[in-house]
Amino acid sequence: MISKEERTDKEKEAYNQGLNRKKYSQGFGHAQAGYANERKKKAIADILKRGKGKDILELGSTSWKQFIDFEAYPPKSLTCINISEKELEKGIKASKKIKKKQDCPPPPFFR
Q: Which residues is 57 bridged to in the sheet?
């Protein structure tokens, strides 16, 4: 049986080498479309509205950009953690493109 550490190292290596998301999308793309997915996105966005002025933690590094409205509902802070340095770099790059009002928090803190 593979240990937790070995599984973690294997996943980290796969993400850092770059996942082939095209193949993933071909296989699971249908699950990312349609009414159910739109309801899921709306539910997440509605929940994150409660994060206005609060600290938010994302287990990942890029999903925040489609759900958090920094203009209307700016969190106090947003911390993103990810197993992959490469995935963190994507999130950091995306955070630099945020157009913020003066009272919005600085771009997400990544680690």
A: 79
